[in-house]
Amino acid sequence: MKKILVVEDEAAIREFVVINLKRAGYDVTEAECGEDALKIYENDSTFDVVILDIMMPGIDGISVCKKLRQQSNELGIIMLTAKTQEMDKVTGLMIGADDYVTKPFSPSELVARVDSVYRRVALSQMRSENKFKEEVKSGEFVLNMRNRTLEKSGKLIELTQVEFQIMEYFFSNPSMALSRTDILNHVWGQGYEAEEKIVDVNIRRLRMKVEDEPSIPRHILTVWGLGYKWEE
């Protein structure tokens, strides 16, 4: 589950953020002040992303950001700022925040920013873990990072290098809706001159290989109007 900690002293804003992140599939924990946030993180450091309001009574968001970053380089941190807090935005980024969202913001902007930071965190975590283990598991599937192979219930599935990279991207972003552009940029590289149709072709090939019934996929699901996502 994608875990996120929301730290905001204004109850109405906090509720707005929490509701929209839960709708987007995140497991959300709330804190109404910096002190509570630090205590929560001390007891549970498995959060993927923290959203921090800059202006809070007691320990402010900048101080919380600094303390959290000292404890983890992989944690995703997003600051909530007001338009008048331009210098605070710069300060937050300088001490380790990954991004900021300026109030007022729309639900779609918030979720897009969080999704973007989460993807980076998940990929970093997977690569870090893979320094110590050769295999990444997802349900009945096992992706071997050294041999660059995929097995389903112990049976080897032959993949092209492109197909393997797509599967690696899926495994690092489970249940996350990935746009065709995201997949294109990740696998083929930024600035690669190609139509997004090339992604659809490779997805069709992958479904033929990994799905029991490719016409009724259970693992590589279409996100209409956007792209695809992976489910165990």
Considering the chains and any ligands shown, give keywords for the structure.
single chain, 232 residues, alpha/beta, five-stranded parallel β-sheet, four-stranded antiparallel β-sheet, 12 strands, 23% strand, elongated
Counted beta strands: 12
Q: Averaging pLDDT over every residue, what do you get?
A: 87
Proportion of residues in extended strands: 15-25%
Total DSSP helices: 8
* Poorly predicted parts: none
Gap from first CA to last CA: 12 Å
Share of residues in helices: 40-55%
Quick one: overall form? elongated
Structural class category: alpha/beta
Descriptive report:
- With 232 residues, the chain is of the alpha/beta class.
- The chain has eight helices and twelve strands.
- Helix 1 links the parallel strand 1 (2-7) and strand 2 (26-31).
- Helix 2 (34-43) packs parallel to helix 3 (61-71) and helix 6 packs across helix 7 (180-188).
- The chain is elongated and about 55 Å long.
- The mean pLDDT is 87.
